[in-house]
Every structure is written in structure tokens, then in C-alpha cells.
Amino acid sequence: MxxxxxxxxxxxxxxxxxxxxxxxxxxxPARARFEQALSKFNGTVLVVxxxxxxxxxxxxxxxxxxxxRIKQ
Length: 72
What we know:
This protein is α+β, with helices and mostly antiparallel strands. It has a single domain (about 5-70), classed as Rossmann fold (3-Layer(aba) Sandwich). Helices cover about 40% and strands about 20% of the residues. The chain has a two-stranded parallel ribbon. About 0% of the residues are buried.
């Protein structure tokens, strides 16, 4: 997600974000800015991601999809 779009959504009152691999292809400074902005977001975020560091930093609940099932 482009930082400008993220800022626009938050400014418009968005309280739910659905993100699919949001940090893929970001360089280190861009990733740091994205994570900083996300940490200040007061809404709910559902993220599909494979990055364990990101999960450890932000997840309050995790669902694992495997064998045709969703496990909490």
C-alpha cells in the first residue's frame, strides 16, 4: 500500500484495513515508515503475510490456513 493511500484512508475515517503482503517489495526505510504508520493506526487490520518478524511485532491474534482449514 502506498503511504499516500494509507494516509488518505485513515484521514477519511477508515477503521478496517485488509492487507495482502503489504511489505513485499518495500526497501528497509519504506518498511520502517509503513510499520510506524501501522502502529499508530487505531482500527482493525487483517493481514495476509508470511513474514514472522512482522507477525511478532503486530499480531494480537493469528489464524493459520492449512489442509483446507483455518486454525486459530
